[in-house]
Amino acid sequence: MQKHELLDRHYKLSKEQVDFYQKNRYIKLKDVFDSETLSYFNGVISKKVEELNKAPKPLENRDTYGKAFVQLFNLWKEDYEIKSFIFSKRMAKIASDLLQVDGVRLYHDQALFKEAGGGITPWHADQYYWPLETDKTITAWIPLQETPLSMGPLEFSAGSHEIMDGRDLSISDESEKAIQNRLKVTDFEHVIEPFDIGEISFHSGWVFHRAGANTTNTLRKVMTVIYMDKDMKLKEPSNDGQQNDWNTWCPGVKIGQTINSPLNPILY
User: Where is the signal peptide (predicted)?
Assistant: First the structure.
């Protein structure tokens, strides 16, 4: 296996960056990884996604969510090199510092590959799906290539974790319309920016976000890692999505217990 020292090298955050995240519940950070590291893992992850994504439906036969991206979960269990990327102490410490906790566990990883011609990712908040007791959750969104606006980079409604409307909506045409209408009457900045190579974002479980369509002829490849406070406890599920997540990502954990299953190792 090729050695990538940058995966575990410290990335220093400033107080201003931590304060920005605490206020807005998202942040974009440049030069987290270099082009060599990303190019290597682009190849490794792409190969595994292609291997696991058997008999995909044509785009025209999918619903809005299906058109948004091909998604595959917990690739760290499928490949030792991908595991080294997902378990990066560099990323995990950033997550821990932004959350202002003593350490973080893995909730799960997720490859999000938006195909050429792939549709929008509707407005949503991730934590709708998570049976987690607190909001001490954060997702690293890692483009594996430079991502211009035409590819559909992640967009954020800065500070929108403050509102409750829309938290009860799964990702759908309904969530796109309802959350968009709710955000129109707020002062939250809608952040739409490209991502440079090596630039990644972190966003909280309750901040609203979306992505545009991929209007290019190139696959938009993104890897995500979802972290939670290492002391996170399981709460009683409040919808079918949370029940499914309990069974899938927190196996054997009982309500009220710390989520310390074999699928949820401490990463920092």
Answer: none
